Batch of 2 targets.
Target 1
Amino acid sequence: MKLIDVFLKKTTVRYGDVVAVRDLTLEVLKGEFLALLGPSGCGKTTTLRMIAGLVHPDEGEILISDRNVNDIPIEKRNIGMVFQNYALWPHLNVFENVAFGLEMAKVNKNEVQDRVQKALNLLKLGGFEKRYSHELSGGQQQRVALARAIVISPTVLLLDEPLGALDKKLREEMQIELKQLQRKLGITTIFVTHDQEEALSLADRIAVMDQGVVQQLGTPDEVYENPQNKFVANFIGLSNFLAGKLIRQDENTTTCEVADGTLVCVHCSGVGGEGSLVEVAVRPERMKILGPEESGSVSPKNVILGTVANKVYTGTIVSYYVRLKSGGQVVVTLQNVGDAKHSFTVGNPVAVCWSPEDCLLFERSV
């Protein structure tokens, strides 16, 4: 049986007339790395602060290790927390910053020395004990904040966009280190981020939030490959959306009519019957781009014609923005494998095609 370390039961948080978190029920398993992902104002940080004890729910219960903590103050919840700005004491050196929580808990001096040193060594900070925060790089400050959070042996580690202040390369390095650290310690970790790539690379499960509600909860591959609604499909990664109408449906396939042609989708049930308004969604990396003379060499299913409106080169990826005859636009992303045969320039007529298996289908309103 899977153990639950954190259980939010029908929790709601209001700020005046604004509902920040709405009737949220969420289970966080012992030892898992859960990401709360969503745009600004979606309720993810409020949820984290509610678990920490910095925000009190207007309704519902919060359980940590089966204990109701609604009325338990933050210092008695055994929570470790790391903020985006790290919140290091500037007048304390590295050792003193990390030892602060243990000293507040009246831990024996010898034990403080031992636990702090182990935490610093674990975070590759041995030899930095006497330095102050202004003498550290951003990555080193982040490690100090992490050491301070884990040294108290918390039941739950809460991370509020702790990598947001780092540059891209260092952030990617710290993502790897953070995941390795979490696995080594086995601490239940809840991580708030608006960065989808960060959530996909770090989390065991992702709770995608919008308007105070979890829109989908699942593993990274589940929320990316099988988004439950248009919001998730649009927020996790990038999707091309083609508005149309469902014209035929059988056991395995759904046929839709869009402005630029007839499209076939596989395994797209639950979107209404014939005549329903729908949106066909396709990930840019699942599309292929060909010269119009090559379009006859592929299956006639799911081929639309257009013109290259823009080309964006980012080293490993080449993105083509294709203007369709209807006036719409799709994005096709290709791995840069140095194949000049499929190098197009702005103004080139092209054919965009994809497999019926790569379609997602959502109902749409008028």
Target 2
Amino acid sequence: MAESKSRNPFTPADAAACFDDPHWAARYPPILNVDQAAALLQIPKATVYAWSSQGRLDRCKARAGKHLRLHRDRLVQHLFEGKFHG
């Protein structure tokens, strides 16, 4: 029988550990605005909004009035799970 391997060994604890350094924690706080999320992922802001509209960020986002906010650790985890690809 073949060994069962985890498809994604990158855990939520790994995502949080990326920001243990105070410099990165200050630059990317736990709740990100769209500018911060785009900078973290190195993509245009328009892409963040497009992914949000397409439902690709549903696990990571919340609205504060008309403003989009993203949970940093969930966003990084989402990235490593490959959820942004069509």
